[in-house]
Design goal:
Blueprint lengths: L2 H19 L19 E6 L5 H12 L3 E5 L13 H12 L4 E5 L7 H10 L3 E6 L2 H6 L1 H4 L4 E6 L4 H7 L9 H17 L3 H4 L7 H18 L4 H14 L2 E2 L2 H7 L5 H13 L3 E6 L4 H6 L2 E4 L3 H4 L10 H19 L3 E6 L4 E8 L2 E8 L6 H18 L4 E5 L4 E5 L2 E7 H10 L2
Parallel strand pairs: 1-4, 1-5, 2-3, 3-4, 7-9, 11-12, 12-14
Antiparallel strand pairs: 6-8, 7-8, 9-10, 10-11, 13-14
Length: about 425
């Protein structure tokens, strides 16, 4: 590319980013995981439109470092080769002067990007990177960057961040403010946490357009998928029935796919692109963990914010989905793992483990006013506590609050909105 054209593009991007830097964005908890003093490349990955660029903007504003910025999700840079990245660096020095940190947005769009990044790391440049394709920026990171990276996964807004966006009081214990938080959570349960969607005046087609971009760009182009229609149908079907244990043989029959391996790959590609988050079964047997994986949507907006979505009114499914994604946020920063448990006698929605020890158990039920439902959920937790040797038990509901003691074991019943905010306030 002609360097004069490249300079024009990068100056335009600089102007756009300077305008972005003047705005106030919601602080994200993942900002604490980014360490610009580290010799490692800081890699922020996640689903499209989850706020990766604005998170990096917040980090750079707080850092006080001199930096340069390039966004490869720009049609004018389409087709740029890895060999031309040094020209990009040269023009960046011309546009920004000397800088300590380089922020590269959507780097996966450039082939051989890792050679460029490795060279900058050897020169002790601080590198901040974002990308949308998990296969490129997680499975291949260890190979391409030879371990010289810190991976930060970003999800759409949590309820805590949703409250910050809409200036909902998170601390007051007055009747009025508690009622406002309850109302806010009811809305969050339906709309989810995609930042742009929450500010969108016409949200009707947002998720459909987002899904189309993910499937066509992040998946089909990356993996060279021939049958995009089949892939789309499988993704839509899984979103309709999530949360669900994925049965690949059923998917093969429903969509008349010749190869079971193809169906397994399609589901894995959707997970790699952060449409879904996977939850493995708690078991000492590796085969059971792998073959009984449960799929959750990365955000509840994908469950009901689409055309022909039939899961939109199931509040229980949506509440369970929100609790799981919240547990993922917490556990990744605490070096913990999340599973589900199931045997003939009981099922536990979420088992949180620290190394090989069970730390806590979570059961999720939208409404436990019916005595039969309440007994079922408490019985499952008590059986799980005995079998897994765990005494930290939670029953997450939409609005119930209290503690129950059974046989010397306490079960904490918490409304989801309170459970999320209480955790963040105690950190």
């Amino acid at each position: 590319m002609d360097t004069r054209i490249l300079e024009e593009i990068l100056r335009d991007q600089k102007e756009d980013f300077q305008l972005l830097m003047k705005k106030n964005f919601v602080s994200r908890r993942e900002e604490n995981q980014v360490d610009l003093n580290s010799p490692l490349a800081q890699v922020v990955i996640g689903v499209r439109r989850s706020g990766k660029s604005t998170l990096c903007c917040n980090i750079l504003k707080k850092s006080g470092l001199s930096f340069a910025y390039v966004n490869f999700d720009d049609e004018r840079l389409y087709g740029l080769s890895g060999a031309e990245l040094n020209d990009v660096l040269s023009v960046l020095y011309k546009v920004y002067g000397d800088f300590e940190c380089l922020f590269i947005d959507e780097i996966q769009n450039i082939s051989e990007w890792f050679l460029f990044v490795n060279r900058l790391l050897r020169r002790e440049m601080k590198i901040l990177i974002t990308g949308s394709n998990a296969k490129l920026l997680s499975g291949e990171l260890a190979t391409h960057l030879t371990g010289r990276h810190n991976k930060i996964e970003l999800f759409p807004f949590s309820f805590h961040e949703y409250c910050d966006l809409f200036n909902i009081d998170k601390d007051s214990k007055t009747t009025k403010e508690i009622a406002f938080r309850r109302e806010a959570f009811d809305n969050y349960l339906k709309t989810g946490g995609f930042p742009e969607l929450l500010k969108c005046r016409v949200p009707k087609n947002y998720i459909d357009t987002l899904m189309k971009n993910i499937i066509e760009t992040d998946i089909c182009q990356r993996y060279r998928i021939k049958y995009m229609s089949t892939l789309s149908k499988i993704a839509w079907h899984l979103m309709n029935i999530a949360p669900t244990v994925v049965n690949y043989c059923d998917l093969q029959d429903i969509f008349a796919v010749k190869s079971l391996h193809t169906v397994e790959n399609y589901a894995a590609y959707c997970k790699n692109a952060y449409i879904f988050a996977g939850l493995q079964k708690y078991s000492a047997k590796s085969r059971q963990r792998i073959t009984n994986e449960k799929f959750y949507c990365i955000d509840v907006a994908m469950m009901n914010g689409r055309e022909n979505a039939f899961s939109g009114e199931n509040l229980g499914w949506r509440l369970e989905n929100i609790v799981f994604i919240e547990l993922l946020r917490r556990c990744k920063s605490q070096m913990q793992d999340v599973y589900y448990y199931s045997d003939r006698s009981c099922e536990i929605d979420f088992v949180v483990c620290e190394r090989n020890k069970v730390a806590s158990l979570y059961q999720v039920s939208y409404d436990i006013l019916a005595e039969k439902t309440k007994k079922r959920e408490i019985s499952a937790l008590l059986q799980g506590a005995r079998k897994l040797n765990c005494s930290d038990l939670y029953l997450i509901t939409d609005h119930e609050f209290g503690d129950i003691e059974e046989n010397g074991i306490t079960i904490k019943i918490r409304p989801a909105f309170d459970w999320v905010l209480e955790y963040m306030q105690n950190r």
